[in-house]
Amino acid sequence: MATVRLAPVLRASAGGAKQVSAQGDNLAEILSDLYEQFPALKEQIQPEQELSRFINVYVNDQDVRYLQGLETAVGQNDTVILLPAMAGGR
Q1: Where do the domains of the chain lie?
Q2: InterPro entries from the entry (predicted)?
Q3: Strand, helix or coil for residue 26
């Protein structure tokens, strides 16, 4: 199973967990398993078919937007990081 690390703002939707495990061969399958475990996460991460533009998703520290997006391969020992985009400044 892959490890999915959740940013603090997402943890309430996952029972307060900092990280959880999910199964799948690619990011789409990992997220589908994650949504089955924690349905409230879907609206924050993937309200439509594509990932929300307000969340950054990394597989082993690589941004999936520069890989294969939802089709990015995920191995059993890989780490997926879900990190909401931050905005601000002057």
Answers
A1: 2-84
A2: Beta-grasp_dom_sf (IPR012675), Mopterin_synth/thiamin_S_b (IPR016155), Sulfur_Carrier/Prot_Modifier (IPR052045), ThiS/MoaD-like (IPR003749)
A3: strand
What pLDDT, in 10s, does the model give residues 6-56? 999 999 999 999 999 999 999 999 999 999 999 999 999 999 888 988 999
Tally Cβ neighbours within 10 Å of residue 79: 15
The model scores a pTM over 0.85: yes
What type of residue sits at position 80?
V
> Order of strands across the sheet with 79-84?
19-22, 2-6, 79-84, 55-59, 62-63
Q: Which residues pair with 58 in a beta bridge?
A: 63, 81
Specify the fold of 2-84: Ubiquitin-like (UB roll) (3.10.20)
CA–CA separation, 1 vs 87, rounded Å?
Answer: 32
Report the C-alpha gap between 24 and 36 in whole angstroms: 12
